[in-house]
Amino acid sequence: MKFRFKEQYDQYLSHIEAFLDQQCFVEDAPQQELFEAMRYSLLAGGKRLRPVFVFDFCRMCGANWKAAVPFAAAVELDAAVFQGEMVAQLIELFFQLG
């Protein structure tokens, strides 16, 4: 049995992208402009290696990797916010709204 990394990676990537897009933002919230800036920054693309590591770790331990999607999304959100990818855009938006 040969492990096909590219196929597995693409499957992981599609699941985490869909989850982030569907679950992380409320469509009709009063802070919609803020959410749009966050969505743009978060979904702008990237390798998403952190969620891939979470999924592969689950798979290697014999668990269902799909059950880890919320945790993997939290890891990705944490990294996006605390590594400053979103912070600059949020500060800029804050001053535009004020």
Descriptive notes:
The protein has 98 residues and is mainly alpha-helical. 68% of the residues lie in helices and 0% in strands. Helix 1 packs across helix 4, helix 2 packs antiparallel against helix 5 and helix 3 runs antiparallel to helix 4. The mean pLDDT is 80.
Note the main attributes of this structure.
98 residues, 68% helix
Summary of the model, kept short:
With 98 residues, the protein is mainly α. It has helices at 5-23, 32-42, 49-60, 69-82, 87-97.
The largest sheet is: none
Radius of gyration: 15 Å
Contiguous low-pLDDT stretches (5 residues minimum) are none
Euclidean distance between termini CA atoms:
58 Å
Along the chain, the helix and strand elements come as HHHHH
Number of strands: 0
Strand content: under 5%
Oligomer: single chain
What structural class should be given to the helix and strand makeup? mainly alpha
**Share of helix among residues?**
55-70%
Give the SSE map.
Layout: H1 5-23, H2 32-42, H3 49-60, H4 69-82, H5 87-97
